[in-house]
Design a protein that fits this description.
Elements (H helix, E strand, L loop, with lengths): L1 H17 L13 E8 L19 E6 L5 E6 L4 E7 L5 E7 L11 H5 L2 E3 L13 E8 L6 E4 L2 E2 L2 E5 L2 E3 L7 E9 L1 E2 L1 E3 L9 E2 L12 H4 E2 L3 E3 L4 E2 L3 E5 L19 E8 L2 E8 L11 E5 L1 E4 L17 E2 L4 E2 L7 E3 L1
Parallel strand pairs: 1-8, 10-22, 11-23, 23-26
Antiparallel strand pairs: 1-4, 2-3, 2-5, 5-7, 6-14, 7-9, 10-19, 11-18, 12-16, 12-17, 12-20, 13-15, 20-21, 22-25, 24-26
Length: 332
């Protein structure tokens, strides 16, 4: 009996070996879809030009999955970037970057991109002429032929002065020798936070800081007769300054960013600084600060970093997003 049982077992094994192998069914490829991100256009102006300095010259869009890993990246053409991603992918995000020399394809995660820093001097890197901008969307679930708009905002703030009036008693001739920003913040992260400030033009105009002076200073000479005005607009750019406590001490410490008009009359040199900050006490990104008229009524300060005597300066500052500008009149 034992021998028969062994033989049956052996036959069973042979039969099993002779069966046709089961073919493996390949796993289905994930379905993908084309997604399109439309980038809102931005017009920029600087110095004495009122026309647009640049539209978006170079832009990229990167898409990340729910864990922040890069899924796809593409360059924008005519204000739109088209990418292919898995359909039905949820919890995704998109990040757009404009006018930057950084390549989003070089960074495999969203967190790595957000840790990058934009610097004021790099806004004109290579052939780029526009200001660096970015925008993002989160919580995206990709459906077939998905389309969305990403609004770009600038890392920089804009400071504008439109008119300078000579209202000095006795009608002496006023010579304007330059207009510039001092105590300038020049760096911020792509997530719009500032981990550590990088200051430039500390307490005075410094010509040697040439990487940023195209954005922060116009040095020129123009004479303004008594009772007349200089009405050529000037535009400047800087990065956010969250400092809420001011100082004019010779030893450097964080302080307000100031727009300074440097002028002279009756053989004396004077400075007319205006603090640039909003109702929250800060200078914010993608915000325009405009002095529509600066009226000079007497001697200014002996230092560009020292505010004019309060009795000689009366002004109110209102702040709104860059898109529509702000209005401010200053009488000194």
């Amino acid at each position: 009996m034992k021998q028969i049982l062994i033989s049956l077992a052996a036959l069973s094994l042979v039969a099993a070996c002779q069966k046709s192998p089961v073919e493996e069914v390949p796993s289905a490829e994930p379905q993908t879809t084309i997604v399109t991100f439309l980038l809102e256009d931005a017009e920029l102006s600087r110095a004495t030009s009122s026309s647009a300095e640049s539209t978006i010259e170079k832009a990229q869009v990167a898409v990340y999955n729910a864990s922040g890993t890069l899924l796809a990246v593409a360059s924008a053409v005519n204000g739109a970037a088209t990418l292919r991603v898995p359909i039905g992918e949820s919890g995704c995000s998109a990040f757009a970057l404009a006018n930057s020399a950084n390549d989003l394809a070089s960074y495999g995660t969203r967190s790595a991109v957000l840790n990058l820093q934009s610097t004021l001097g790099a806004n004109r890197a290579a052939s780029l002429s526009g200001l660096e901008m970015s925008g993002s969307l989160t919580g995206i679930t990709f459906t077939e032929n998905y389309t969305a708009t990403i609004s770009l905002v600038r890392f920089a703030a804009k400071v504008e002065i439109d008119e300078i009036v000579n209202a000095i008693p006795g009608n002496p001739k006023l010579t304007i020798n330059g207009i510039y920003l001092i105590n300038v913040s020049t760096r911020m992260r792509y997530d719009y936070s500032v981990s550590a400030y990088n200051w430039a033009q500390k307490r005075a105009y410094t010509a040697s800081e040439s990487s940023i002076t195209p954005y922060t200073a116009d040095i020129f000479s123009v004479e303004v007769n008594g009772g007349a005005s200089y009405s050529t607009p000037h535009y400047f750019y800087c990065y956010p300054n969250g400092t809420t406590t001011d100082s004019s001490a010779p030893t450097w410490s964080a302080r307000f960013t100031r727009l300074v008009v440097e002028a002279s009359y009756s053989g004396n040199d004077y400075y007319y600084p205006v603090n640039i900050r909003g109702a929250d006490g800060k200078l914010n990104y993608n915000t325009s600060y405009a002095i529509t008229r600066l009226t000079i009524t007497g001697p200014g300060s002996d230092s560009p970093d020292k505010p004019v005597n309060k009795g000689a300066a009366i002004f109110n500052l209102s702040v709104i997003p860059w898109e529509t500008g702000v209005s401010q009149e200053v009488e000194i």
